[in-house]
Amino acid sequence: MDEQEKSIRIFKALGHPIRYKIVKFLYDGPKCVCKLNEDIEFSQANLSQHLKILKEAGIVSSEKIGMNVHYKISNEEIKNIINSVDKLVKS
Question: What share of the chain is helix, strand, coil (3-state, %, to 5)?
Answer without folding.
Answer: 60, 15, 25
